[in-house]
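Usage

Read records sequentially. Each one opens with the input sequence:
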Amino acid sequence: MSNTRNTEESQDLQESQDSRESQETRSSRTPRKRTAPRRRTETDSDTEHDSDTEHDSDTAGSTPARKKPKPMEVLRQARAQLAELTGMEAESVSSFEQTSEGWVLEVEVLELERVPDTMSLMASYQVELDPDGDLTGYRRVRRYERGRADARRSGGH
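and closes with the structure output:
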């Protein structure tokens, strides 16, 4: 009885090995899709690593590029990101410009609410975004009372 069991086990083992060899043969014919980057070992040479990098960049180049955001999307993103960082809601955008580095906006924010409303403190923030609309920096450029108009300059000075 144990002799029969050993024979069955050896047959199962042989079938398992045959199956693995068959899979290895199939995988050598069809390229495998890698799901994670291969870990480099001490035995890997630099040329092998370079060829892997080139292959990865070729496949990455075939994917479509990220869609350029529309101006209104950039405005909404800038207002939301500034509000998240400062805790103050943007009331308006007073200037908006696309530059070679991305986008530059000037955003008006209510900094300190007072009664009457015309005495509330407002601030202008310069907000910089990258080409994808992600905030890269901001700074307060002006602080003023809501009821005050900008000083008018006579003669263009």
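Summary fields computed downstream for this record:
- Residues 2-29 form the longest helix (28 residues).
- DSSP finds three helices and four strands in the chain.
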